[in-house]
Amino acid sequence: MAERVEAARKLFAGPVTFLKSAPSLQFLPDPVANEVAFAGRSNVGKSSLLNALTGRNALARTSNTPGRTQELNFFDVGDPEGEAFPAFRLVDMPGYGFAKAPKDVVRKWKFLVNDYLRGRTVLKRALVLVDSRHGLKDVDREVMEMLDKAAVSYRLVLTKADKIKPTELAKVSDATAAEARKHVAAHPEILTTSSETGLGIAELRAAVVEAIG
Ligand SMILES: Nc1nc2c(ncn2[C@@H]2O[C@H](COP(=O)(O)OP(=O)(O)OP(=O)(O)O)[C@@H](O)[C@H]2O)c(=O)[nH]1
Ligand SMILES: [Mg+2]
């Protein structure tokens, strides 16, 4: 475990650059590197977690206003010692399930995300982020079913762990794990993170590196 964490730290210490935004499938980058995608309800902390993983504060745009990102954002991550750049890609997905989302936006999200998830052979894993204060919601369950059907393996990641008491956190984590076990494509173990304190970030890096192989 410690070895994997160290290897992952090195890989993530390499160059990281924003590649492009894809508002629709025709704008997807060529599938030249394995990808790990960040999914989750709006405001759950996807962009913040991507920044924490790469150690770059302002790489992915974070915001207090939910639903700003409606595109797939691709980031190249390199290996400082390797020849190949990118070594892999991180994909920041638009958030789902915010209250004021207009219907056409929701429909667009479903088409874009569903098509991306089903058709992308380089997509090795999705990380489904869940706010640890709220736990899984029905929209998350719908996305989990979408991932089950698309046969994309995924891992549930609790975010903003700094915002709740450890006893509450343990309860939410147990409940989330119990649900994960009912889904064929879900990893049974839940990762707990905070972009604010750095909790779980090293472990999440290791999980990404394991996923990209
Ligand atoms: N306390 C705390 N706040 C966080 C954490 N992660 C994110 N936030 C805050 O939560 C808000 C939303 O974060 P984002 O990273 O923009 O969320 P997102 O999931 O990318 O949101 P969308 O792009 O709208 O889907 C911001 O105000 C962040 O500063 C965390 O670990 N702890
Ligand atoms: Mg975002």
UniProtKB/TrEMBL annotation:
GO terms for molecular function: GTP binding; metal ion binding. GO terms for cellular component: cytosol. It comes from the Bacteria. Keywords: Cell cycle, Cell division, GTP-binding, Magnesium, Metal-binding, Nucleotide-binding, Septation. Its cofactor is Mg(2+). Pfam families: MMR_HSR1. HAMAP family: GTPase_EngB (MF_00321). Necessary for normal cell division and for the maintenance of normal septation. This is Probable GTP-binding protein EngB. It comes from Alterirhizorhabdus solaris. The gene is engB.
